[in-house]
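For reproducibility, we list the full input for the adenine complex.
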Amino acid sequence: MKIDILTLFPKMFKGPFDESIVKRAQEKKLVEVKIHNLRKWAKDKHKTVDDRPFGGGVGMVLMIEPIYKALKELRQKDSKVILLTPQGKGFNQKLAKNFSKEKHMIFICGHYEGVDERIREHLIDEEISIGDYVLTGGELPAMVVIDTLVRLIPGVLEKPEAIKNESFSTKTLEYPQYTRPANFKGWKVPETLLSGNHKKIAAWRKKKSLERTKKRRPDLL
Ligand code: ADE
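The corresponding predicted structure, in tokenized form, follows.
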């Protein structure tokens, strides 16, 4: 998959994409991430990409022209263009799964008080929010969305079976996990998990998973 990111803060992406699974996915050529400074497509010498809102009001609005020009250069026939804002549709594992099948994704990181509405109306495929809270910009949300979808691309994870049982891949939250020691200061691992009886273990996990979901996220059931 090819991923292009349009941002006013390219340096923010350095750390998260240069570590761990996303880094390995790039090394394995399963994903190619390019980060672009939106100011590259500004037309004046001050590299302006925002302006005051028509009708007045506080804050600045992201202009349509730099985004239009950037997309004219980057968009291909099969590109999916995502705008990140708090007003977008809520991101979840199902969307991540669908995104992981795309060939080319372009992420536009919103900033300021908002974006010119015509960007929404004419230039993008989907507007996404990562949750009901407001961040300073779309950069962290873009990183969250990209991290989530990259690990779902076939070949990225060493053990793809891990995805099958994890929270949100099924309708229930993942069951509790334990590792050695079996007894830590008297805090013991449930006997069933040490029994070696796979049927019993599977039943225990299913039960715990359901109990946990009922308690924490009944909305999922
Ligand atoms: N930009 C600011 N807050 C955001 C959010 N919650 N989701 C996506 N983009 C955002």
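The mean pLDDT is 96. The CA atoms of residues 175 and 211 lie 9 Å apart. Both points were considered when choosing residues for closer inspection.
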